[in-house]
Specification:
Length: about 80
């Protein structure tokens, strides 16, 4: 199963998206990613294999203050 969440609002998107992805963990996945819109049209993104905690660890020191973003979990299936 895969899950996709997005946020557009007034609060920083990173924490809201990570919380929403955590609520999708019951569905099963093997990787996760997040992307937020930065200033001047730049896109900040990160992806991680394994549990969501790996993605959280990868972005915990980022200062992405954007209020627009998207996140996903992915289950790689073959066949």
């Amino acid at each position: 199963m895969c899950g996709i969440v997005g946020y557009i609002g007034t609060r920083p998107a990173k924490e809201i998206i990570l919380h929403a992805l955590a609520r999708l963990e019951y569905r099963g996945y093997d990787s996760a990613g997040i992307a937020v819109a930065g200033t001047n049209g730049h896109l900040h993104w990160e992806k991680a294999a394994g549990k969501l905690s790996a993605l959280v660890e990868a972005v915990k020191t980022t200062s992405w203050g954007s209020t627009v973003g998207i996140g996903h979990t992915r289950w790689a299936t073959h066949g």
